[in-house]
Amino acid sequence: MDYFSGRIFSVTKIIWLIIFLMIMNTVKSSTPEDPIKCSSSSSSSSSGVLKKKSNCTITNFIGAFPDRTTCRAAEAFYPTTEAELVSTVAYATLAKKKVKVVTRHSHSLTKLVCPDGDEGLVISTKYLDRVLNVNASAMTMTVESGMMLRQLIEEAAKANMALPSSPYWWGLTVGGMLGTGAPGSSLWGLGSQVHDYVIQLRIVSPAGPGEGYAKVRTLENGNPELDAAKVSLGVLGVISQVTLKLQPLFKRSVTYVTKSDSDIGDQAVRFGREHEFGDITWYPSQKQVIYRIDNRVDSSNTSGNGLYDFLGYRSLPSLVLLTIRTNEETREALEDINGKCIDGRLISTTFRTAAYGLTNDGILFTGYPVVGYQNRIQALGTCLDSPEDLRITTCPWDPRVKGIFYQVTTFSVALSQVKSFIADIQKLVTLEPKSLCGLDLYSGIFMRYVTTSSAFLGKQEDSIEFDFTYYRSKDPLQIAMFKYNGLPHWGKNRNVAFIGAINKFENADKFLKIKQIYDPLGLFSSKWTDQVLGLNKDGLSIMKEGCALEGLCICSEDVHCAPKKGYFCRPGKVYGKARVCAKQY
Ligand SMILES: Cc1cc2nc3c(=O)[nH]c(=O)nc-3n(C[C@H](O)[C@H](O)[C@H](O)COP(=O)(O)OP(=O)(O)OC[C@H]3O[C@@H](n4cnc5c(N)ncnc54)[C@H](O)[C@@H]3O)c2cc1C
Ligand SMILES: *[C@@H]1O[C@H](CO)[C@@H](O)[C@H](O)[C@H]1NC(C)=O
Ligand SMILES: *[C@@H]1O[C@H](CO)[C@@H](O)[C@H](O)[C@H]1NC(C)=O
Ligand SMILES: *[C@@H]1O[C@H](CO)[C@@H](O)[C@H](O)[C@H]1NC(C)=O
């Protein structure tokens, strides 16, 4: 017992140190690595100008796909103009090579960026990041698809405009947010998904010899092909340019309020209807909910120059990351659930004390509400700012240091089903009160609002998107997907979330018809995208030892769990049709 309390005490100290460093944030981080690494680099292709490299591997921001494989490509191209993009697609089409687009940081966890086999090619959009047109009277902006959200927000603000809602992490690109249908949080207006603000885009796809093997299409609002292209998983070709409908720059007012979770089922939907940018963080094992009350305010008569710099997206010293990781691994190994619960409470208390990284003037937090311009609050990610410092500090998930490594499950549940789904999570917690403590270490269950989209692979109904981040899978995925018809986030999740998912999209067939027209040879498709789109029936589940713990299968035998570590395949306790790995003592 002494041993335990002693250890917990020292862990507490370490966590306070981490938090202190996060809040001080005096340290600068290292630039994330390019997700494409090539062993040879030749500066030009046949055209003589286009930058090209060969013999490459591709990975994502965290350095690992769910199945732990590495992806390869024979060549990587770095076009700097749409014309170069067209010649790259033409080259691939003529040679019948598999192709994928890779963005600057490759933030999707799913295997969307891997071309099939070793002989394919990848097209990096990292040099396609310019503003092409700003129209203040029409309130539109046209940008190249490789532009990061951060730059999009900055450029819009310079013209006194704002994208009303977006993901919270600014390292994502315009092409990538469209590729996966990434949202922020809002039920109001056009909602929270960036693709619902697209009024025009240009896309480069394969073509026949008569058209020079590549074709550029301009898709306008109202064209059903735009509904296919604005959430495309990258299988229709390369999006070159995107025009977004913006709004006059506005201010918003943010207040975090902590309450008991007893009525969360009743509150969740109402809260989203009441507050334009609200979101909810739920710590079920602590019986606590943090409501983010977040509304647009009149910027002419409401003062404030607040800034949001979320603690979790700041850089941390590698040494601290190592400590956090080692601590969690030890807790896992010792099955120290109480320890996890204590760490979790400490972390959530600290985030609350530090106002989650909000300041009223960019320096100090003096109290709620924090009022500030949209561009200073909607998205963040200072850990990307970075002179190289030998990785003494870096983003918390940098795969080059042994740091935080996590799994994510993200799905949306229709508003009409939210109350019952939440009740099921509450039942799970009642059965095993500490089972969800692991979530607290990664900001609980994060709930955001998304709206019905005309995109064929977009949301089918107004919904709440639930984010579960954890070290080891302990999430109600099967309840959400199979009992409540949940839809997966295309860029997050592990394999099991996609089983049968495509059948829940009413217009999936329309999407596939357009795919057939745009890319009849399936050059932009891969085994993974075919599986996800239901074109390749088997393979999403990888049945092997331990697969259910890895999120690669739904267990049907104990061996799919880890019987040696005491995990056996059992029916779910709340949803009897689920098959989950349960600890047997
Ligand atoms: C720290 C962090 C925070 C995050 N926060 C959020 C959040 O708040 N909300 C949310 O929804 N998601 C979030 N995500 C997940 C992320 O939004 C998605 O995975 C996102 O789509 C990735 O964007 P990316 O630019 O990195 O694209 P990638 O992951 O590189 O690409 C995604 C897909 O789009 C395709 N693609 C990219 N560009 C093009 C193009 N020009 N033409 C055709 N296809 C293209 C790619 O080939 C790939 O298939 C977060 C991820 C991280 C790591
Ligand atoms: C390709 O790169 C790998 C390392 O990633 C190396 O082992 C191999 O020799 C390289 N092949 C060629 C043809 O350069
Ligand atoms: C801005 O948009 C309006 C309306 O669509 C259009 O008439 C005008 O030509 C555009 N201006 C620029 C500079 O593109
Ligand atoms: C700001 O102005 C709006 C109308 O323009 C008014 O409704 C609101 O009450 C004003 N707020 C304050 C704090 O004066």
From TrEMBL:
Residues annotated as domain FAD-binding PCMH-type: 69-249
InterPro entries: ALO_C, FAD-bd_PCMH, FAD-bd_PCMH-like_sf, FAD-bd_PCMH_sub1, FAD-bd_PCMH_sub2, FAD-linked_Oxidoreductases_BP, GULLO2-like_C, GULO_Plant
Listed pathway(s): Cofactor biosynthesis; L-ascorbate biosynthesis
Entry keyword set: Ascorbate biosynthesis, Oxidoreductase, Signal
Signal peptide: 1-29
Ranges for region Disordered: 31-50
Molecular-function GO terms, alphabetical: L-gulonolactone oxidase activity
Cofactor annotation: FAD
Biological-process GO terms, alphabetical: L-ascorbic acid biosynthetic process
Annotated catalysed reactions: L-gulono-1,4-lactone + O2 = L-ascorbate + H2O2 + H(+)
The protein's Enzyme Commission number: 1.1.3.8
The family this protein is said to belong to: Belongs to the oxygen-dependent FAD-linked oxidoreductase family.
Name of the protein in its database record: L-gulonolactone oxidase
Organism of derivation: Penstemon smallii
